[in-house]
Design brief:
Length: about 400
């Protein structure tokens, strides 16, 4: 039997998140975006609300909610601003859920528990100056030296880079395989901010997500304990791809929040603005723009919730999260475009939030794998070029 109804717990989580965002993000976001300034106090509010481990089991310091709950948190956060949703995509989707899936008990004790409690903030380091969607194009290396790995390289466009305490870093442990572009030479490491030789910095001048911290991670002979190898040597690529399944899921869910924000902002403006003797919402072509937003929101929500349902069951959701991410981000761009059009010249002014929505909408079609990558993935599944073999990278089913 198929049931599309949200549970009482889901509704409670969504309301809690909406309240936190309305009280602690909305009053400041226009000024923070304008100043391109990250607000570190937000993390304290998210920690207090017990949201930073929303879908991690209570055993590991989390709230023990399911993956639909994570999606709802992302939607409500991005309804206010994309920068708030990014925190959940990176800290939970790309890092904590990965340690939950791949980490041993010692790593979960040392890293997952404090991250789930919000005592430590974490991020994900795959992208480099010359390697984005082409993961095997990274240049960072990890040389084994006794009980240590020596890491050298640089990561770029990393969300929370200048804020995070813990970093999930991907590097080549087999340079011969690197020359052959054999992804089985990649490995994953948990790296702490305090390690000697590691430095970070922030990037400014971004088109969107200006209130979010984005930066770089530089590593020069950084000594990482062998105990911080996540999984086994050579499993880094599989780990990274499983992380991206989770990240794409959170991006898709967040994008529906952006669509809804565009709908509500447009409706509010239409109810007061008059042209040709009547309010804008009486014009047929304006109604068409709203219809397109409704289409994007409702269909997109079904797509990400299907992916969440698969995650709850412990079923691999690579195809579903890819499709949801592609569709939802594409529709968010279109919704923002229409919202600016509805506002006319005022849409170009930061007096109205749609200007910020328009700028923020673009990034999601690029990060976590470009929309072009998602299109190729969907075609490969359809043509039988790609199939889901039973992998070790399945996220543990939710046992609520």
């Amino acid at each position: 039997m198929i049931d599309f109804a949200l549970t009482d717990d889901h509704k409670t989580v969504a309301k809690l998140t909406a309240d936190v965002a309305a009280r602690h993000i909305k009053p400041k976001i226009a000024d923070l975006d304008r100043a391109q300034k990250y607000d570190p106090a937000l993390l304290d509010h998210l920690k207090e609300a017990d949201l930073l481990g929303i879908c991690i089991p209570e055993k590991y310091g989390g709230a023990g909610m399911d993956y639909i709950s994570l999606g709802l948190v992302c939607e409500e956060m991005e309804y206010i601003d994309t920068s708030a949703r990014v925190i959940f995509s990176v800290h939970i989707g790309l890092n904590s859920m990965c340690i939950y899936t791949w980490g041993n008990e010692d790593q979960k004790e040392r890293y997952l528990i404090p991250q789930s409690r919000g005592e430590k903030i974490a991020t994900f380091g795959l992208t480099e100056p010359a390697a984005g969607s082409d993961a095997v194009g990274i240049l960072t290396t990890a040389r084994k030296d006794g009980d240590l790995y020596i890491l050298n390289g640089e990561k770029m466009w990393i969300s929370l880079a200048d804020v995070a305490d813990n970093f999930l870093i991907f590097a080549w442990t087999d340079t011969d395989k690197q020359k052959k572009r054999d992804h089985s030479g990649l490995s994953a490491f948990i790296v702490e901010r305090g390690y000697a030789g590691l430095s970070t910095g922030s990037l400014h001048g971004k088109l969107g997500v200006r209130a979010g911290n984005t930066g770089y991670i530089a590593m020069q002979d950084v000594e990482v304990p062998a105990a911080n190898l996540l999984g086994k040597e050579g499993e880094g690529f599989k780990i990274a791809m499983s992380c991206l399944d989770n990240g794409r899921y959170t991006v898709a869910a967040g994008s529906t929040g952006l669509i809804r924000a565009c709908m509500d902002a447009g409706r509010e403006y239409c109810s007061t603005r008059k042209t040709f003797g009547e309010t804008l919402d009486r014009h047929q072509l304006i109604k068409e723009m709203f219809a397109e937003m409704i289409y994007g929101y409702d269909a997109g929500r079904l797509l990400w919730q299907k992916a969440g349902w698969e995650k709850n069951r412990g079923v691999r959701s690579t195809r579903s999260t890819s499709l949801a991410k592609w569709f939802c981000t594409d529709q968010a761009e279109k919704a923002a475009y229409n919202a600016v059009q509805i506002h006319g010249a005022y849409g170009f002014s930061d007096e109205y939030p749609v200007e910020r929505f328009f700028r923020n909408s673009k990034g999601a079609s690029i990060y976590e794998g470009t929309r072009e990558m998602q299109k190729l993935m969907q075609a490969d599944y359809f043509l039988g070029i790609r199939t889901d073999r039973p992998p070790r990278c399945l996220l543990p089913a939710w046992n609520g």
